[in-house]
Amino acid sequence: MTPACASLTQGEAFEPRLAALASGLTSLLDKPEETATATLRALWALAAGHPVSAELALEQPLAELDEAALARLDALLARRLAGEPLAHLTGRQHFMGMELLAGPEALIPRRETEILAKAALGKLRELIPTQGGRPATVIDVCTGCGNLALALAYHEPRAQVKASDLSPEAIELAGRNVEHLGLAGRVGLHCGDFLEPLNSEAIRGQVDLLVCNPPYISSGKLKGMPEEIIAREPSLAFDGGPFGIRILQRLMREAPAYLRPGGWLAFEVGLGQGSAALQWLGKMPEFDHTESALDAEGQVRAVLARRAPT
Q1: Does the pLDDT value for residue 86 go beyond 60?
Q2: 99-151 per-position pLDDT tens digit
Q3: Does residue 187 lie within any of the structural domains?
Q4: Which residues contact 136 (CB under 8 A, 6 or more apart)?
Q5: Of 3, 155, 196, 296, which is the most buried if we count CB atoms within 10 A?
Q6: Which spans in 25-160 are helix H?
Q7: pLDDT tens profile 4-16
Q8: Which of 231, 264, 26 lies closest to 122, judged by CA?
Q9: What is the mean pLDDT of residues 246-268?
Q10: What percentage of the chain exceeds 90 in pLDDT?
Q11: How confident is the model at residue 243 (pLDDT cuts 50, 70, 90)?
Q12: Which among 56, 90, 124 is the end of a domain?
């Protein structure tokens, strides 16, 4: 088969499937990268035996698919149109330049969480020159698949990161991501309730940066969430209690005991929660400075606070 014929056959297979997917796909606002084209290309690569995220799929040429592979592709498209998350099908999700392993064990990393990751990474890089040559100590609670912990370690080799999660399944997935990215020497995982598994004299009052993407959706709003999220991703990762602030308040209350003077707390907030979080932090004598990071619409999506001198 000549290259021209291969291209034509490929196009004949791709275009009608793209049209069918575009007409039937319901895209979630918090996954803007999952366009019909990116979704089809990711599932095309998966059918060819090369799983990649939607974002990475756009950068790679389409593989040639035989009849068996096209049948696999059609089965995958049917599952996606039935509501199965793309990242669960491919087992991949792109985050902060990393190709992560993904699955139903933990929340799928969202593009909006990169706002927190970038703000936290900026603070980490400000802190490191003041460390006198020692590595920076970072904690990530509610780590999920490990995306925040791994992003900070991946982009800042002078960071030592400890991450915790209440879910054994999430910690297992995070562990596979640690191995996948070759960061076992600098990212340690702990299963337990919030900061409790990290509670030791060796770390209390010694942490340079504490980050968290906590559950912040109010329990009453869960039934109104898209079926693709509420039925397919663990509710433990987004149920923030009756008002969506239970874990946020706990975080602000418990974090100061772990931070060193001058260390930073950084966490994600839901839409409309930023102002209240900044007000709470502003009234706490344990913190002497607060900042926020905004999304493209000017909404506060990450809050940062500096531990005051003791």
Answers
A1: yes
A2: 999 999 999 999 999 999 999 999 999 999 888 888 999 999 999 999 999 99
A3: yes
A4: 124, 127, 128, 156, 158, 159, 160, 208, 209
A5: 155
A6: 36-47, 54-57, 67-81, 86-90, 113-127, 147-155
A7: 334 446 878 999 9
A8: 264
A9: 96
A10: 81
A11: low
A12: 90
* Helical (H) or strand (E) element with 261: strand 259-268
Q: For residues 86 and 121, state if they share a domain.
A: no
Tokens 């999952």 belong to 34
Neighbours of 209 (CB within 10 A): 27
55 and 125 together in one domain: no
Domain membership flag for residue 158: yes
Q: Which residues span the domain enclosing 144?
A: 113-307
CATH number at residue 62: 1.10.8
Instruction: Tell me the C-alpha to C-alpha distance, in Å, between residue 204 and each of 28, 194, 259, 263.
Output: 40, 14, 7, 12
- 291 and 227, same structural domain? yes
Q: Are strands 136-141 and 187-191 parallel, antiparallel or unpaired?
A: unpaired
Q: Same structural domain for residues 198 and 297? A: yes
Residue 101, classed as helix, strand or coil, is strand
Query: Which pLDDT belongs to residue 4?
Result: 37
Q: Looking at the structure, do residues 182 and 138 belong to the same domain, yes or no?
A: yes
